[in-house]
Design a protein that fits this description.
275 residues; alpha/beta; Rossmann fold; seven-stranded parallel beta sheet; two-stranded parallel sheet; 11 strands; 38% helix
Length: 275
């Protein structure tokens, strides 16, 4: 396939682009600044300059591709207005451009945070979503638009906390989650398994307009996650701050319908493999 990846200089998109190229896909990366994408160019990934907020730039980006994998998003530090503009309206513009260019498939990487605080129970794809903070609110709005858009084969992949593969993600959240409850559990997945899940959605002929959760076999508690990078457990002093993150995902649909099987089913497996 010829695949356009957005957010290709980000944590998920950069690793995903390279893995899709390694499996034989012809990958084009949408980047805002080509000078930041030297590693992608070295991986023989085609670069196209554009911005989700510039509709005219998107027409050239989607021209001639078979599929779009939309990873670009504004997450940490985004105001509600910025999250809405990039994550919702930007996604809408990209999807409309893809449909106009007769792109066959559109994969939207969303987030498990769309479920909202539900006490840490396993959330399935058909469960009611009730997020309370701007990032997942904007992602959920984009999901709803995309899934209602006629004439475009849309699949939504709800990602958990993504780690591994040289990504300092765990270290970066330690300060932010320092006051979370140490026994609060978090759905996670390795970057390699994100790429595998995306490949499953690219390759499956059906069903269209379907949502899939991606998760490891185990959801570690935060004390275990922190220990993986040598950090002391969080102190639990602000459980209210942690509530928006208190939802776990049920990943059976992806496995049963598309045959997904994680390369790193548990955090311990990735640690043992030095991954």
């Amino acid at each position: 396939m010829k695949v356009l990846v957005t957010g290709a200089t980000g944590k998920v998109g950069s690793r995903l682009s390279k893995r899709l190229a390694q499996r034989g896909d012809r990958v084009r990366a949408l980047v805002r600044d080509a000078t930041r994408a030297a590693a992608l160019r070295e991986a023989r990934i085609e670069l196209v300059t554009g911005d989700l907020l510039d509709a005219d730039s998107l027409a050239a980006a989607v021209r001639g591709v078979d599929a779009v994998v939309h990873c670009a998003a504004f997450f940490r530090g985004a105001t509600a207005e910025q999250a809405h503009a990039v994550n919702d309206l930007g996604s809408q513009q990209l999807a409309i451009a893809a449909r106009a260019a007769a792109v066959k498939r559109f994969i939207f990487t969303s987030t498990g945070l769309v479920y909202g605080p539900n006490g840490g129970r396993l959330a399935g794809e058909d469960d009611v979503c009730a997020p309370t903070v701007p990032y997942p609110l904007s992602k959920l709005a984009a999901e709803r638009f995309l899934l209602s858009l006629e004439g475009l084969d849309v699949r939504v992949l709800r990602l958990p906390f993504v780690y591994g593969d040289g990504d300092p993600h765990i270290e970066e959240v330690v300060p932010m989650m320092r006051d979370f409850p140490p026994n609060q559990r978090m759905s996670i997945a390795h970057h390699a398994d994100v790429a595998h899940a995306v490949a499953c959605l690219l390759d499956a002929s059906s069903p269209a307009h379907r949502i899939y959760n991606l998760v490891d076999d185990e959801a570690p508690d935060l004390a275990t996650l922190f220990a993986a990078v040598g950090a002391a457990p969080p102190d639990g002093s602000n459980p209210e701050k942690a509530r928006p993150f208190a939802a776990l995902m049920d990943g059976r649909r992806l496995r049963e319908e598309l045959g997904f099987k994680p390369q790193f089913p548990r955090l311990a497996d990735a640690i043992a493999a030095g991954a």
